[in-house]
Amino acid sequence: MEELRFEHMEYLGLLAIVPLMLLLFLLASYLRQRDWKTFGDVPLLRQLVPEFSKGRLWLKVTLSMLAFVFLILALANPLIGKEKTKAKKRGIDVMVAIDVSKSMMAEDVAPSRLLRARQFVSNMLDKMKGNRVGLIVFAGHAYLQMPLTVDHSAAKLFLRSVSPDIVPTQGTAIADAIRIAREAFEKGEKRYKALIIITDGEDHEGDVEEAVKSAREEGIVIYTIGVGTAEGAPIPDYSGGYLRGYKKDENGNIILSKLNEQILGEIALLGGGNYYQLAGSNNPLPDLLKSLDTLDKKELEEVSLDNYVSYYQFPLTLGLIFLLFELLLSPRRARWWRKLNLFE
Fold first, then answer.
1. CATH number, position 170
2. What's the longest Cα–Cα distance across the chain?
3. Distance CA 330, CA 327 (A)
4. Higher pLDDT, 168 or 77
5. pLDDT of 126 higher than 70
6. What does the DSSP assignment read for 110-176?
7. Distance in angstroms (rounded) separating the CA atoms of residues 71 and 313
8. How many structural domains comprise the chain?
9. The domain containing residue 16 runs over which residues?
10. Are the beta carbons of 180 and 173 closer than 8 angstroms?
């Protein structure tokens, strides 16, 4: 069994333009017919311009719309994955909680803290085959972005949409992220569970210590990844895709967002895991994977999907073919074509 999905679902909304294109053509056709009637008898006018073909004009419009549809499908990038049979594997359940507060847009870690965090998680997913992975995003509140699954390709698709825009309230609710993770793990198990919190740790809210203790009682090992530097960086203010300035305090001074290593180190220590810093050329992924590999593993049985294969080239080719035919086709009939009496 194969499953179809699109990498960029947002582009499919452009297909709504197709009915509008058709309506505009119908309106233009109606206005043209009305103008013809003002000049005289329509059948007589058609005899005066025998090269004009209404059928060929309709064909050009149809080709244009088909080209548009297939080019949009190519832009959305169709992906197809084949379903595997159930197979038992040994692994652990890993929830990844990513901070999406605006301070994560600071650029003391290139290209930005959030983009570096997303790259880190994407690389981690490539090397964690066999483990179930889920995603949580948090700022002022935490939200379950994706439940536990062995479908790492799906996790990557969700990962691409992670940004400050998907969380309505700002802040750094680490305690709330831990609570969401506790609810996402299977109840009754006291092992096989790890939570990875990726944040700059700034302006954390809630009773984090109590949340960590509750998680440890349920067998969850907590790791923290600190993204940023102690020197910090200003928080950019983007609007409409353009940099409008930097976040300022009530006195008009630019705020520097700094990595809070102390709180992240305390969370990892209390959570039974380790703290790692993600900045510059430092890559803590090998050490994190090595530590995760020491945790007790359980048998996981779940229907999984192969990595999705991109098939954008097929709708792209069809779209270009339709577009080429549309450009080559003239609304006027050649003399030899007129004798065939086609597309009247």
1. 3.40.50.410
2. 91
3. 8
4. 77
5. yes
6. SS-HHHHHHHHHHHHHHT-TTSEEEEEEESSSEEEEEEEES-HHHHHHHHHT-SGGG-SS-SB-HHH
7. 10
8. 2
9. 2-81+310-340
10. no
For range 159-175, the mean pLDDT? 84
* CA pair distance 213, 220, nearest whole angstrom: 10
User: Which residues make Cβ contacts (< 8 Å) with residue 96, sequence separation at least 6?
Assistant: 121, 124, 133, 134, 135, 136, 196, 198
Average pLDDT over residues 103-111: 91
Q: Distance (Å, rounded) from C-alpha 80 to C-alpha 153?
A: 11
Q: Is 199 helix (H, G, I), strand (E, B) or coil?
A: strand
Question: What is the average pLDDT value for the chain, to the nearest integer?
Answer: 83
Same domain, 248 and 108: yes
Same domain, 130 and 185: yes
In a shared domain, residues 129 and 51 = no
208-217 helix and 174-184 helix, angle to the nearest 10 degrees: 20
Give the span between the Cα atoms of 259 and 103, in whole angstroms. Answer: 10
Same domain, 267 and 159: yes
Same structural domain, 324 and 198: no
Residues 62 and 133 in one domain: no
Element (H, E) at 94: strand 93-99
What is the rounded CA–CA span in Å between residue 32 and residue 58? 14
Q: Is the pLDDT of residue 118 over 80?
A: yes
Contact 193, 220 (CB under 8 A): yes
**CA distances for 84 relative to 135, 147, 170, 190, angstroms:** 23, 19, 41, 29
| H helix and E strand count, the chain | 11, 15
Lowest mean per-residue pLDDT among 3-7, 105-109, 185-189: 3-7
Instruction: Give the amino acid at 244.
Output: R
Q: Are residues 140 and 251 in the same domain?
A: yes
272 in the same domain as 158? yes
Q: Report pLDDT for 307.
A: 58
Q: H-helix or E-strand containing 278? A: strand 272-278
More confident residue, 163 or 41: 163
* Confidence check: pLDDT of 302 > 70: no
Q: What is the mean pLDDT of residues 271-298?
A: 93
Task: Give 264-283 pLDDT, tens digit per residue.
Answer: 999 999 999 999 999 888 89
